[in-house]
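Two quick folds needed for the group meeting slides. Do the first one here.
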Amino acid sequence: MANFPTRVQQTIDRGYEFNFGDYISKGINLVVKNAGLFIAFTFVFLLITMVLSFIPVIGQLASSIVVGPCLGAGFLIAARRTDEGRALEFGDFFKGFDHLAQLATMAVITVLIMIVVAIPFIAIAGFSYFTAFSSGGIPEFPPIWTLVLLIPVIYLSIAWSMGTYLVVFHDMKAWPALEASRQIVTKQWGYFFLLLLVTAILAVLGFIVLLVGILFTYAIMPCAQYAAFRDIVGVADEAAIDLDITSHLVD
């Protein structure tokens, strides 16, 4: 058995309740409390990742493996400070880089495994496109049934969604964090999928209704997920601020 932190292992062993509505509302409230800073950082985050995406290979690798994960962790750190009523400064959003080694390692592991898991779909899609080009025809999307081959990719993308939180808030190493995340999330996988889906829809609506709106609604995604993580697992030094993290656990 993996040697997970006590609170993480308790969550895996005992299970938990998933308070979906509470996480959405708390995520929104966390952003509202420091709306200016969250909006400013979201702008910086999206700008940096967009610029890097235009740099072939090096920029794209830097974005997906180093910059993206660390800046993404900044949302979680800011959400925690806001949640605990502590003063939030713009520099706090960049403290995800304190966990650079493990976050980058996690990103590499995730990408490599996802590629391996997606090989059956990639092979069929590649063959379909190659055949079309060879015959001078127009490439068509692979048969709809091939989407079934992507189920493992979808499952893991949701199951590993707490990995960053475990690295940042429990100082876990990359692989144990991914494995612990998988075991925790799988217990309520459907709810986690729904939470990610709803918050993603909110972000899209923010973009459609008003372009600048995405700077607010995008930040709701990590803040709502932070609210879920804190309720379900808690943070390593939570006892210091006198919070009860066991009330939601299922006996």
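Then this one, please, same format:
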Amino acid sequence: MTPASLVNPDLLSHGTLECSDTPATRRFLTEFLGIDVIRPLPEAQYLSKGGPWTVVCVRVDGEQKEQGPQNRFKLAVASAAEVDAAHAAALAHKDAYGIRRIENVEEKGGIRAFRLQDMNNVWWEIANLTQKHYDDAFARGDYKQ
């Protein structure tokens, strides 16, 4: 049983990432990754792909902070074949979308995935998994040795 928290939020609202070129970032997000984007403020755009959680992309001057690939956003696709197709698309369109790095496709525990780093130093992972993956993880609970 989880102890009562001091803060009682209704939902995890959003997280943020940085970008320096708003139009180029939006083009990558919509045309390549297929993410829904709106720009309600001059300095920010909102990213969504279903569900109650949003990412806010905030424009900053200069180079964005680089994080390692362990700090990434994961996009779920329906099949391993779609992961492979996305990887091929990333390789074919790397220069057009300013993709900095593309890692090899790997498979672990039945989940096929790869990671890429965009023009803003943001890492993305494309994997064949569903919400059931996370529902099952929460149902199992914490790791026990």
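Slide caption for protein two: DSSP finds four helices and nine strands in the chain.
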